[in-house]
Write a structure and sequence with these properties.
- Keywords: Arginine metabolism, Hydrolase, Manganese, Metal-binding.
- There is one protein chain.
- This protein has about 350 residues and is of the alpha/beta class.
- It has one domain: Arginase, Chain A, CATH 3.40.800.10.
- About 35% of the residues lie in helices and about 15% in strands.
- It contains 11 helices and 8 strands.
- An 8-stranded parallel sheet has the order 2-1-3-8-7-4-5-6, with helices on both faces.
- Strand 5, helix 8 and strand 6 form a beta-alpha-beta unit.
- Helix 5 runs parallel beside helix 6.
- Bound molecules: manganese (II) ion.
- Manganese (II) ion binds next to loops.
Length: about 350
């Protein structure tokens, strides 16, 4: 039993009964509980790479679209896809000079780009559309999650949960980060563990409506967590299922526990970093870590989250097609299949 769960296990048992070996859902319905029109979907291509140091991740969305993702969502999965047919690089709003701030690299650029993305995502989510955002590096989640969190509060008067599937915890504060790369910090800013005054980079996030609670954040797939991040996870009692838990319980039980933690009545934003998968399945990514999820386990996570009927948005990030030759195609295929599973593709 992961330590954060043992404290609440009795409570969870009372609430949900004994945890079964399948996903905690009433039935595998595809009805979306929290969307206004069941099959209305916005696809956003966020080709931003300034949250980390390697070029090429900005081409991730293009690779996914060129491999047919938008067409598959429309023709195979029958979504009404709203796609503006452009990759949002946002180069026009990136400042010429961008000195480090509290050790963060590209702080102004990442702040203005994610702020713009936040209102873009908000404009779709407030219509009750499902929003799929393709990264780009994982700093874009500052924009996507704040946008859906705000829309969910305005539209449904609810807080949403975030399932963060990743090898890394991405919850460094500027002070605990060794690299200064903001793609390792999105959850610190989104939860308010890190904050800034207005006018400074990420000062715009200084508003409760844009944030998520640490109690509604659940990790799956962790295996490369920095020292300071481990402390933040412990001190804040954040629900985290590492690869150790996946080994011990199997992915089925991990999903039971993760979804029981969130509960049946909470909208879910899924933020999926392709580096959660083992490099065997997804080698073409900036910070690959061995001993990760199999492609089947990653797909199962996406299927289970879909089956809750609570999913309202997802990010698929960190596909960097320039890092590998053969591996790039494999990584793109894996990413597409994760998105398809999250959107209702089934094996039978
Ligand atoms: Mn990440």
């Amino acid at each position: 039993m992961p330590p954060f769960l043992s404290q609440r296990y009795d409570q969870l048992r009372r609430q949900y009964g004994a945890l079964s070996s399948t996903c905690v859902v009433d039935s595998p319905i595809t009805n979306a509980k929290f969307l206004s029109r069941n099959k209305d979907l916005a696809l956003v291509a966020a080709g931003f790479s300034g949250g980390q140091g390697k070029s090429g991740v900005d081409a991730g969305p293009t690779a996914l679209i060129e491999a047919g993702l938008a067409i598959q969502l429309r023709d195979h999965l029958r979504y009404n896809v709203h796609y503006d047919d452009k990759i949002h690089y946002c180069n026009d709003i990136v400042p010429d000079s961008d000195p480090d701030h509290r050790g963060m690299k590209n702080p102004q650029a990442t702040s203005v780009v994610t702020q713009k993305l936040s209102s873009h995502i908000f404009s779709h989510a407030k219509e009750g559309r499902f929003v799929v955002t393709l990264g780009g590096d994982h700093s874009i989640a500052i924009g996507t999650i704040s946008g859906t969190a705000k829309a969910t509060r305005e539209r449904l008067n609810r807080d949403m949960a975030v399932i963060w599937v990743d090898a890394h915890a991405d919850i460094n504060t500027p002070e605990t980060s060794d690299s200064g790369n903001i793609h390792g910090m999105p959850l610190a800013f989104l939860t308010g563990l890190a904050s800034e005054k207005g006018g400074k980079p990420f000062g715009w996030l200084n508003s409760e409506e844009l944030r998520i609670s640490t109690t509604k954040l659940v990790y799956i797939g962790l295996r490369d967590v920095d020292h300071g991040e481990k402390r933040l996870l412990r001190e804040n009692g954040i629900a985290a299922f590492s690869m150790h838990d996946v080994d011990q319980y199997g992915i089925g039980k991990v999903m039971d526990m993760a979804l029981a933690w969130i509960g049946n009545d909470t909208p879910i934003h899924l933020s999926f970093d392709i580096d959660a998968l083992d490099p065997m399945w997804a080698p073409s990514t900036g910070t690959a870590v061995r001993r990760g999820l199999t492609l089947r386990e990653g797909s199962f996570i996406a299927e289970c989250v879909h089956d809750t009927g609570s999913l309202i948005a997802m990010d698929l990030v960190e596909v960097n097609p320039s890092l590998e030759q053969e591996g790039a195609e494999k990584t793109v295929e894996a990413a597409i299949s994760i998105v398809r599973c999250a959107l209702g593709e089934t094996l039978l």
